[in-house]
Amino acid sequence: MAFLEIENLHKSFGANTALHHFDMQIERGEFVTFLGPSGCGKTTVLRMIAGFETPTRGIIRMDDQDVTHLRTRQRKVGMVFQAYALFPNMTVADNIGFGLKIAHRPQAEISKRVHEMLELIKLPQLGERYPWQLSGGQQQRVALARALAGRPQVLLLDEPLSALDAKIRISLRQDIRALQRELGITSIFVTHDQEEALSISDRIVVMNEGRVEQIGSPSEIYNYPRTRFVASFVGTLNILAGHVVDPATGRMAVDGQELTTTQALPADDAGKRRLLALRPEAIVLEPASPGRNTLNATVEEVNFLGAVVRIRTRVKDAVISLDVFNDPNRGLPERGQPVSLGFSHENLLVLEEGGV
Amino acid sequence: MKSQSRVGAWTAVIVGSLYFLIPLIATFEFSLRMKRGTYSFEAYRVVLADPHFQASFGYSILMAILTIVVGVLLVVPTAYWVQLRLPKLRPVVEFITLLPLVVPAIVIVFGYLRIYNSSSILPFTGNERATDLLLVFGYVTLSLPYMYRAVDAGLRAVDVRSLTEAAECLGANWPTILFKVIFPNIRSGILSGAFLTFAVVIGEFTLASLLDRPAFGPYLQLIGANRAYEPSALAIIAFAITWASMGLIQVFGSARALSGQNI
Amino acid sequence: MSASSDAGSVQPELLVPPALTPTPRVDGPGRASQWLAWIGVMPFFTFALMFLILPTGFLMIGAFQDSQGHFTLANFRELFQPTVMDAYWISFKVSAASALGGALIGSLLAWAAVQGKLPGWIRPTLMTFSGVASNFAGVPLAFAFICTLGRVGLVTVLLKKYLGFNLYATGFSILSFSGLTLTYLYFQVPLMVLIVTPALDGLRREWREACDCLGGTPYQYWRYVALPVLWPSVLGATLLLFANAFGAVATAYALTGSSLNIVTILLFAQIRGDVMHNQNLGYALALGMVLVTGLSNGGYIWLRSHAERGRR
Predict the structure, then answer these.
(1) Does residue B211 sit within a domain?
(2) Taking the CB of residue A316, how many other CB atoms lie within 10 A of it?
(3) In which domain of life is the source organism classified (chain B) (predicted)?
(4) Tens digits of per-residue pLDDT, A259-274?
(5) CATH number of the domain encompassing residue B104
(6) Residue B61 placed within a domain
(7) Residue B48 within any structural domain of the chain
(8) Which chain C positions have a beta carbon within 8 Å of B30's beta carbon?
């Protein structure tokens, strides 16, 4: 039995359906991320797991117990909010110990636990400070400690890094993951930042408009997107319009140029128009060579981004971006210059028809 | 628990509404009773036809308009220069604009009577017109907090510095900037301040009474002392005017102009 | 209707200077425009000096002088005569009663509108009405309450007619201390609503949710989080209400006239006709008033900045 089971969850606000049919099994100790744009329903699911909203339909089970209609304070969940939500009238230590205090634990136990948590988040000397004296990153760590102090069965994080600076975001997400591994606590992380999701999750649930688009490991989601939405939301994707020449051999045509894909195509697809997808990192600037695809394009823009140089090229109506690593000794193509884009057969993806 | 708090909330709102509406209803009902035995607007007719009403109301309206004009001319350039060139003066100016809220009106007018009486250098109370002027200045003082705050919020909302610099690049001199660029953009702030000032001045009693001017406030008090039904009609009229002023503030987007800080 | 001669402020947040706009350090286009700016603000400062600072200052200084202009503390001793002390005491009682009453009722109303899960139109209506009502003070308000609770007021009559309850037989009169307090509440409660509502808005929903997650009951939330966060604002607002009532003149004049001897009425009479036969005593009276209102407002401002500290 999975630790956290979500069955057939639906949520409607009046006439507006925020969530359609959400099903998921989460194992104990797993770190799952709900990823999607604003309004996709990811926070709605999280809030129903926490108990702030009641599902219109469906069941939520934690450790074999049906918690669907249980009040939040009876569920033993820890929650970290985007806005930290530390109690401003209490010190850091009081914040962390709050859950234990209202459970009437003895003072000695509370102090010991608070001390442990402060060590865990590596802020042992800040116990007597007030939240407004701390930086954003520190506040969020305290919020984490507060959520974990009571040993909850599930840790819920609602876009905890969105309010922080870029550098802090990266270091803090590593810290969160490390902490979660050490404690072995089942965690659900909500974000709209795909890099965050990819870097720290065991599994990702990609959502859009109240529906699940795909569930899988970061590598699966990135390399084998099932729908156009997943493909374009997670990473940059070049989309080309083409049509099928020969489904048996996987030959496709784009702008009069012939390409080959190893993806299986239905036999009756011959002549059909399909959307092709190409990851920027799969493309190399190289002359045509046998056994590899080649696309002739014209350079539109060269953007120096530091470690990476993003080159934007055009093939008739389609824009194709590719990234090359920065190498000062090698020259870069100029605008208007014709170039030859090379990529393997495997890297040419054909998207499901109708994927938006 | 949720339904409990809803019952509590409804109770509070209903009781509150009753407390606030009943006096208005009572006053209105009373004002209709002038003609014995039947409801009529007789009291209103009498009041509106009363030359003293017209005179004092007209006087107060005139005072209000003068106050608004003087106030705007005084406050807008000040707020503008402080924001733009003299930010260090800001705390001083703000303190000054808060003083009228701390020092009661009666103390202020007491001060006027002592300093500007007939035996001083500036004998404002020496003759009627001069006293009128003093009254206007007093009203400007009383309405200073509202006017300054409304204008200041309006200025900050339109980023005065950028506007001025853009105008300067295009070759404008400072009167042009002030009147053609700044004023039009803070119109809603000025209007909010103006309507508040209007509400303040129309019914003001203390200053007008102690300076012995024939304003609406003292007139109201006099009527109240001597008549039975007219005061209630006047009270309703007064309430309607206050409501109209506040309403007009809402119309002119005051929420943005007058807020600006949560408490 | 006369806001400042009675109800004080319709926009209570005026009492605290807003946060400074971050004006970038600019050397400016030169000294000419700096001079121009100084000239530009001169009218304001001249005006403030002539019509605000000097008059008040004159009285404050005059309080320390006798009729010949010599320095003396005699006026303050005179303040302790029974008439004056009584006046201060009654003023204090009326102000405190209407402030506490206004604070309590206003807080409850604000809470109902903000967090009571009522239909959406209740809150804006309440705020608009509060804006109007907090300004509806002075003479018309006195009339309104006489029409309501006066001897032949609507409510008095209805109570007698339908409940057989004779209000005036209990010794109550609208033209009294309790009547005045009740009348003052009409603008005190809306003022409180206007001040407290933003403070209640400042109670973040996440605090409640975080408290729930940590196992807290609603009572524990209010006791450990919400009330501690709110009390500076509420206390500060109460002080504001106190100062507001203390300085009010017109309502009292129209309602109780000289029958209820509060400080403002006493001062009014003193200004009109030197009833205490000592000009400088009037100054001392004024000084006393300014001290009271000044301290209250100071307390409000201090508490407010104390409350702001925890937020954002």
Answers:
(1) yes
(2) 12
(3) Bacteria
(4) 888 887 777 777 888 8
(5) 1.10.3720.10
(6) yes
(7) yes
(8) 147, 153-154
